[in-house]
Amino acid sequence: MAVATSTGTAGVRAPNWWLKLVEKIVTHAALIVLSVMFLIPFFWMVSGSLKTGEDLNAFPVVWFPDTLTLENYVAGLQVFPFGRYLFNTLIICVFSMIGAVLSSSFVAYGLSRIEWRWRTPLFVILLSTLMVPFYVTMVPLFTMFRGLGWTNTYLPLIVPHFFGVPFFIFLLRQFFLSIPREMSESARLDGANELVIYWRIILPLAKPALAAVALFQFLASWNDLLGPLIYLSDADSYTLSLGLTFFRGEYATQFGPLMAASTVVVIPVIVVFFFAQRTFIQGITLTGVKG
Amino acid sequence: MTTTASNPSQTAPATGVPRKRSRATPAQRRNLFWGLVFTSPGIIGLLWFTAYPVLASIYYSFTSATMVRSPKWIGFTNYAALMKDPTWWQSLYNTFYYVVLSVPIGIVVALILALLLNLNIRGKSIYRVIFYLPAIVPLVASAVVWLYVFNPQFGVFNTILGWFGITGPGWLADPLWAMPAIIIFSTWGAGNLMIILLAGLQDVPQDLHDQAKVDGAGALRRFRHVSLPFLSPHLLFALVTGLIAGFQFFTPIFVLSNGTGGPAGSTTVSGLYLFQNAFQFFKVGYASAIAWVLFIIVALATLLVFRLVGRRVYYAGS
């Protein structure tokens, strides 16, 4: 290094500088092209939702319509009761989120902060259930919930989350293990029992991991199609995803209302994402092989 | 062996050492109690939502159960029927078609994005959000949007191809091009994977990179010999999870084909055929057999990947 810089004069450095500039331009060009490619569907969705029927079916394609109209939203929302579906979806999202965070952190505490005989075997068993695919359990679960009279209610979509979600248990256990032992030892000496330590010490320290789990579950419920598709048959109880699917069937070729409805479903997620970006990324990274 | 087995009761008191499995101390008993309390929701969930349905599903697969008829044992009849079911074979072919193409393409695209974003450039966080956005948007909504994107006449996809003088196919309306269209759609959601690979790239020690640079290694060689080893666990993770998710692929197909798996069965993947049998034809036993054969295939594929690739993975710690 030292040799290179001392012998290299401005003449040597200059091409290096140029090379870097070219490199930068090429990278930015690549990133911009890729960004445009990734954004086009969104642009197409929003512009499609604002186009008149004529512009929607125009050939060649109209990129920037001269006249913007809200009629697709009006037409779409008459058939697609956004408010109701949003409310239904939020109920499922919020309750399954509460259930997943509480139960998974509770179980993870028992698997990481207490030393007892069966904790490792139990953890291994719980972890191995991650390998059981949903389609294997789907049919028996359906017949069981039907037997309980839970079909066409939100119970099958919420209740299981109150019994620990293996993936989240795994995530939180790893996180809890990284919290120093002394934290709970001193509380234990002061006479606090495990419930108090869990609630007052561990949970507050684990906020980032809990937030990641909460977001994951919220998003999973928000995006879920198969669950609502199986369990919900009454159109009034549909979620946004399910409603959109049936709406798509009715409006197979009328893209205007279809794009308006998707815009209405997509925008809230994007807004949430912008506010919770860090947690999202952190959650994803936590999920990776780093744990 | 035989001597030690008969010994403990005699040797333990003789040496004055308490027996290994003596009574638990009060502290141990308290820990056992709290351990069970905390894990009890997990244990109940395990039995209720995993163990029971798995056993029931195995049982169903050997019965003639339907949604209305109670199960009757028929042995391997369902499995034998599968082997003679052309739609099932087609669904298997479609599933492999999807997995074999979409998983590697998704990984390569995610890797390219991650490598670009790992460079020291301005506006990184904006690009990152843009690439990540499709991955967080509800799948149903984005699939509906892509219906319009792929529309042969007034869709944006063929218009762009037209700029390059390419006449685009009918995509979702064409049996030959429907699956490629779905693979393109899936690749658009490579953002999740990109974030994981980006995290991996950021773990690569910078001084190793600098050293290789001083030694005159070009960008490609630096990637091959410095970044790639550090990234290999992440890539294995991507491959395995991609494989498992790919075999379960359902939602976009359901939306894009309007639940039919068409045109001409060209997008009937195993997940969809399973769903149709269970919830449209109400053939619970048959659907369970499909699920188990699929599960065995996924398990074998995963095992194969670990066998072939697992050994080449480099773990920084070890």
Automatic annotation (TrEMBL), chain A:
<feature type="transmembrane region" description="Helical">
    <location>
        <begin position="85"/>
        <end position="110"/>
    </location>
</feature>
<protein>
    <submittedName>
        <fullName>Carbohydrate ABC transporter permease</fullName>
    </submittedName>
</protein>
<keyword id="KW-0813">Transport</keyword>
<keyword id="KW-0812">Transmembrane</keyword>
<comment type="similarity">
    <text>Belongs to the binding-protein-dependent transport system permease family.</text>
</comment>
<dbReference type="Pfam" id="PF00528">
    <property type="entry name" value="BPD_transp_1"/>
</dbReference>
<feature type="transmembrane region" description="Helical">
    <location>
        <begin position="255"/>
        <end position="276"/>
    </location>
</feature>
<keyword id="KW-1133">Transmembrane helix</keyword>
<feature type="transmembrane region" description="Helical">
    <location>
        <begin position="154"/>
        <end position="176"/>
    </location>
</feature>
<keyword id="KW-1003">Cell membrane</keyword>
<feature type="transmembrane region" description="Helical">
    <location>
        <begin position="197"/>
        <end position="219"/>
    </location>
</feature>
<keyword id="KW-0472">Membrane</keyword>
<feature type="transmembrane region" description="Helical">
    <location>
        <begin position="25"/>
        <end position="46"/>
    </location>
</feature>
<feature type="domain" description="ABC transmembrane type-1">
    <location>
        <begin position="86"/>
        <end position="276"/>
    </location>
</feature>
<dbReference type="InterPro" id="IPR000515">
    <property type="entry name" value="MetI-like"/>
</dbReference>
<dbReference type="InterPro" id="IPR035906">
    <property type="entry name" value="MetI-like_sf"/>
</dbReference>
<feature type="transmembrane region" description="Helical">
    <location>
        <begin position="122"/>
        <end position="142"/>
    </location>
</feature>
Automatic annotation (TrEMBL), chain B:
<feature type="transmembrane region" description="Helical">
    <location>
        <begin position="129"/>
        <end position="149"/>
    </location>
</feature>
<feature type="transmembrane region" description="Helical">
    <location>
        <begin position="177"/>
        <end position="201"/>
    </location>
</feature>
<dbReference type="Pfam" id="PF00528">
    <property type="entry name" value="BPD_transp_1"/>
</dbReference>
<keyword id="KW-0472">Membrane</keyword>
<feature type="region of interest" description="Disordered">
    <location>
        <begin position="1"/>
        <end position="24"/>
    </location>
</feature>
<dbReference type="InterPro" id="IPR035906">
    <property type="entry name" value="MetI-like_sf"/>
</dbReference>
<keyword id="KW-0813">Transport</keyword>
<keyword id="KW-1003">Cell membrane</keyword>
<keyword id="KW-1133">Transmembrane helix</keyword>
<protein>
    <submittedName>
        <fullName>Carbohydrate ABC transporter permease</fullName>
    </submittedName>
</protein>
<comment type="similarity">
    <text>Belongs to the binding-protein-dependent transport system permease family.</text>
</comment>
<keyword id="KW-0812">Transmembrane</keyword>
<dbReference type="InterPro" id="IPR000515">
    <property type="entry name" value="MetI-like"/>
</dbReference>
<feature type="domain" description="ABC transmembrane type-1">
    <location>
        <begin position="92"/>
        <end position="305"/>
    </location>
</feature>
<feature type="compositionally biased region" description="Polar residues">
    <location>
        <begin position="1"/>
        <end position="13"/>
    </location>
</feature>
<dbReference type="InterPro" id="IPR051393">
    <property type="entry name" value="ABC_transporter_permease"/>
</dbReference>
<feature type="transmembrane region" description="Helical">
    <location>
        <begin position="230"/>
        <end position="250"/>
    </location>
</feature>
<feature type="transmembrane region" description="Helical">
    <location>
        <begin position="32"/>
        <end position="62"/>
    </location>
</feature>
<feature type="transmembrane region" description="Helical">
    <location>
        <begin position="289"/>
        <end position="309"/>
    </location>
</feature>
<feature type="transmembrane region" description="Helical">
    <location>
        <begin position="96"/>
        <end position="117"/>
    </location>
</feature>
